[in-house]
Amino acid sequence: MTRIYFNEVATRDGFQIEPAFIPTDVKVALVDELSGCGYAKIEVTSFTSPKAIPMLRDAEEVMGRIRRVPGVEYTVLVPNLRGAERALESRADELNLVMSTSETHNLANLRMPREHSFAALAEVIRMVDGRTPINVSLSTCFGCPMEGEVPPDVVLGFARRFADLGVRGLTICDTTGMAHPAQVARLVEALQKEFAALQLTLHFHNTRGMGLANVLAAVQGGITRFDGSLGGLGGCPYAPGASGNISSEDAIHMLDAMGFDTGIDLHRLLAVARQMPQIVGHDVPGQVAKAGRITDLHPAPASVAELKETFK
Ligand code: COA
Ligand code: ZN
Questions:
Q1: Which residues pair with 243 in a beta bridge?
Q2: How many domains, the chain?
Q3: d(Cα 289, Cα 264) in Å, to the nearest integer?
Q4: For the purposes of burial, counting CB atoms within 10 Å of the CB of 36, is it exposed (0-12), middle (13-18) or buried (19 or more)?
Q5: Confidence of residue 289 (pLDDT cuts 50, 70, 90)
Q6: Closest ligand 1 atom, CA of 236?
Q7: I need a surface site. Which of 147, 156, 292, 302 has the fewest CB within 10 A?
Q8: Nearest-angstrom CA–CA distance, 218 and 23
Q9: Is the separation of the CB atoms in 237 and 53 below 8 Å?
Q10: For 248-284, how does the pLDDT look when each residue is reduced to its tens digit (9 = 90+)?
Q11: Quick check: is 144 catalytic?
Q12: Which protein residue's CA is at the shortest distance from atom 33 of ligand 1?
């Protein structure tokens, strides 16, 4: 049975676009519940500027208060050296560095040209010097909502430059749900050819309903690591038109049904997923938490028993 590794990003990507501040206590309690569900990794928060992402201004406190379960990696998003210092101080298990493959999105999101981001992140990698594993999330790899197409060579070029700096993993992000399965298959093939030795993760948003189809295309191309967000929350506040990540529980439910080993206790995860509307104060897009698993059957109406008698 192929093992698939899930990284839960609800408290980072999921929460960062929510308008109403989610109390620190609620974030800590949610991470603690997720820690018991079988995730390989949880992206707890981000060490970004509190002006850019006010929702995650409590990053230190959250990292300090969560209960760390052995076997679960607690990662954090980091945009610059200052963020890396804060992340190390908070004893993150991994630093997830971020930059965009689109110049326009990088300027909108990180307020600097891509080359400045690359230089800053290279400096972070030198500073960390192997003390903590580094993952790099490359945004807008399947298209930029402002520029349009991002050529695969540009994506592969940044991937190559980070691979040369010795990172452990790369996350290929579809920031605003522009990817389609054929495109995913092509990019995954190219990535697997060149970076098979790295941990390759795919990060999809379901903005146009193609999220799970893209997961399937990636799995068929040999990818075994995915980001997902409970309830299907999420989105980059600096990418116009952004909306939710793929719902973790929907993706895990699909892969479970297909016979993959996700390591997740889906029953337990769905119980947590059902708390999401209350936590964020609105309905969420995830479907399986509402519909139940395909194995959760309904009683037949009384009329069926009568009809069974009649037609005996
Ligand atoms: N953590 C906390 N504060 C930070 C910081 C960090 N990692 N990086 C910068 N700051 C602070 C500076 O101290 C400064 O504070 P001050 O105004 O009180 O002096 C302020 O932010 C501006 O610093 P500067 O270096 O000029 O940054 P900037 O305004 O050009 O912003 C980023 C650059 C990268 C820090 C900011 O755009 C950011 O955090 N973006 C994150 C976007 C994001 O997470 N998007 C969603 C995920 S893809
Ligand atoms: Zn995202």
A1: none
A2: 1
A3: 15
A4: middle
A5: very high
A6: 46
A7: 302
A8: 35
A9: yes
A10: 999 999 999 999 999 999 999 999 999 999 999 999 9
A11: no
A12: 110
| Residue 86: how many other CB atoms lie within 10 Å | 18
First to last CA, the chain: 42
Which letter does DSSP use for residue 100 in this model?
Answer: E
pLDDT score at 211: 98
Ligand lying closest to the C-alpha of residue 48? 1
Give the domain CATH number at 151. 3.20.20.70
Expressed as residue numbers, the domain containing 145 is: 5-310
CA-based radius of gyration for the chain = 20
Q: Which amino acid is at 195?
A: F
pLDDT of 41-84, one tens digit each? 999 999 999 999 999 999 999 999 999 999 999 999 999 999 99
Alpha-carbon span 182 to 26, nearest angstrom: 39
Does 79 sit in the ligand 1 pocket, CB within 6 Å? yes
pLDDT of residue 222: 98
Nearest-5° Cα angle at 246, 242 to 248: 140
Q: How far apart are CA 41 and CA 64, in angstroms?
A: 17
